[in-house]
Amino acid sequence: MAYIEIIKQIMEEKSYSQQKFADILGVNQTTVSQWLLGKKKPGYDSIMLIYEKFNIQPNILFGIE
């Protein structure tokens, strides 16, 4: 589950709370929490925003080489 580790890494490097990360992506904090717990995966729009705002390629986000 590469996306969990990458999201955690982004949040740690930027000192973002779940709420701050959620605000940047236009989702709610519960959604970010579910991503971090592996209960949900980011949708297309969120994946594209992570790519645009943090320069993380979608393939890398999901562990695809």
List the main descriptive attributes of the protein structure presented here.
single chain; 65 residues; 434 Repressor (Amino-terminal Domain); 69% helix; 0% strand
Chart the SSEs and their pairings.
Elements: H1 2-14, H2 18-25, H3 29-37, H4 44-54, H5 58-61
Helix pairs in contact: 2-3
Q: What is the CATH T-level topology?
A: 434 Repressor (Amino-terminal Domain)
Oligomeric state of this protein:
single chain
Share of helix, binned:
55-70%
On the 0 to 100 scale, the average pLDDT is 92
Tally of separate domains: 1
The rounded distance between the terminal residues' Cα atoms is 13 Å
Please state roughly what percent of the residues sit in beta strands, choosing from under 5%, 5-15%, 15-25%, 25-35%, 35-45% or over 45%.
under 5%
Helix count equals 5
What is the CATH first-level class name?
A: Mainly Alpha
Gyration radius (Cα, Å) is 10 Å
Describe the protein's architecture and organization.
The model has no long low-confidence stretch (mean pLDDT 92). It is globular and about 30 Å long. The protein is an all-alpha fold and 65 residues long. The chain contains 5 helices and no strands.
